[in-house]
Amino acid sequence: MRFTPVLILCLAVAPLAQAPDTVFLEELTWTEVRDKLAAGVTTVIIPTGGTEQNGPHMVLGKHNYLVRHKAGAAARQLGDALVAPVMAYVPEGNVDPPTGHMRFSGTITTPPEVFEQVLEYAARSLRQHGFVDIALMGDSGGNQASQAVVAERLNEEWADTAARVHHLTDYYPGPGDEWLIAQGEREEDVGSHAGMHDTSTLLFLEPSLLRVDQMAPGTRGDGSGVSGNPTRATAEYGRQIMELQIDAAVRQIQRLRETSRD
Fold it and tell me: How many domains in the chain?
């Protein structure tokens, strides 16, 4: 039997015709999103990460890798949610003179008002398409104030509609640091940036993004960019911390979906 080029192409793509099993918006076609909305998938998570220094031992995109994974896990637990693309450019300090993480090579910053406008219009876009519960999941401390501003602004504007924006306060920093201390770790080892918490979660999720030979304790202001002791990190710590954060996000989204319209 002779196969025409068109028939060969059809046979080649036939196994790919089914919609993928994914919760990530950017991996779906517009018709697949439309159909999910019609089927009741009307919650969407907007993850915000950052491109910032994380000490000599951890890649600049740490937050983006972690928050995408955790947002995806939360969406799957919810069962009726999708995840928007990660916002990777967030407030990280001033450009000139450089402050905050901008003092370290590779960090990319935006002014808070710019970050807020992009976040606001992402939410406006998603509401326009039919999403009614829009959850802002910020994986970095510098994102939190702007997320709260955007949520308050849009919820006031949309008060007489079905749509709500939820700033997830239970997710970050979450209960992970307290849990580590409860395991007997010292507060100074847990630290506050590029220490045990994030190093452990990345060690569990994707250890190739760590430079294990560069791990060393650090303190704020010593020039390393580390606050804490990443050498105390373990993959098991990371698994537990991520589960705590994901569960906290899911519970808060479920609660706010029920109570935010009272």
Answer: 1
